[in-house]
Amino acid sequence: MDDSVVGDGEGAAAIRTHGLTKRFGAHAAVDDLSLTVPRGSVFGFLGPNGSGKTTTIRMLLGLVSPTAGQAEVLGLPMPRAARGVLPRVGALVEGPAFYPFLSGTANLARLDTADPLAPARTRRARVGSALERVGLSHAAGKKVHAYSLGMKQRLGLAAALLSPRSLLVLDEPTNGLDPQGTREVRSLIRSLADDGTTVFISSHLLAEVEQICSHAAVLRSGRLMAQGTLDELRGAARPRLEVLTPDTSEAAEVLRGLGLEIEPAGPGTVVGLPAAEAADGASSPAAAPAAPEAVVAALVAAGVRVRGFRAEATTLEERFVELTGEGFDVGG
Ligand SMILES: Nc1ncnc2c1ncn2[C@@H]1O[C@H](COP(=O)(O)OP(=O)(O)OP(=O)(O)O)[C@@H](O)[C@H]1O
User: Fold this and answer.
1) Source organism's superkingdom (predicted)?
2) What is the model's pTM?
3) CATH of the domain at 309
4) pLDDT computed for residue 2 by the predictor
């Protein structure tokens, strides 16, 4: 196959990985990752610091090679087809490096010059429209050292948008920004997505992913804990049932019989959770848990003395804390 011809397969995912793994010595930074990013989605790649997000992105962009597994970007294998794929992928990976004493326009023109596929004749128009796209036309002639962090980040996005892109890959695009800069960048990402561009965005902020993403995957220590639409992930939130009873072992028996997992709890208390789903989470949710009223009826029918009963739905936030298993940063 000629890799310079991009086989833009109808219905193909924007990104698909299978068993993607990267080891540094004995440590697996990314471990057997199978990810599907649908075209047109705004896909949040969510995980605590050090969970392997940047390493994954670097493999997707052909910047490092995987130890095992495969990655396809826009329907073509990476890194083999990098030459055909990368011109259609805009990336913001490390904080963009600009010349501080050159203007926004001059910086973008320099970057555009470095792109062998970008005709010089149309450079001015390209730079102008990229700046307009990110709302920086008014500051086009200003030197970059006078830009705020948010403006610099938007200039980074403008650089990623100099030529038409099918996919944008953004690594923690709001990291280090103040609230105003964060708002600017998030609203820009939303507007890019409205134009149909697939956006793959890594973040350690649940609130950010909830605000701008249609889909998400949750990574923990290099492993995929769940992926799906935000609604699917919410649907996979597991209600927690708490039974106060002197008959704890009988109650636990009834809950187990209904397919619930028993969680350690204090004396006189039995806590049941619907059984955990497979590691790919929302894409194969477990069977629907029994309704709380059915659980109470079963307890009573079995002769369990119920002194108290509580059913608590877990929020997406609790669900993500549960999946990532650590002090997950949900702010932002
Ligand atoms: N070049 C490298 N050599 C050795 N270990 C590495 C290298 N790059 C990353 N790692 C390790 O791999 C793990 C995942 O790092 P990675 O940067 O991909 O995580 P991340 O989720 O992007 O986190 P952060 O948001 O902090 O960048 C970490 O334990 C990190 O120390």
Assistant:
1) Bacteria
2) 0.75
3) 3.30.70.100
4) 40
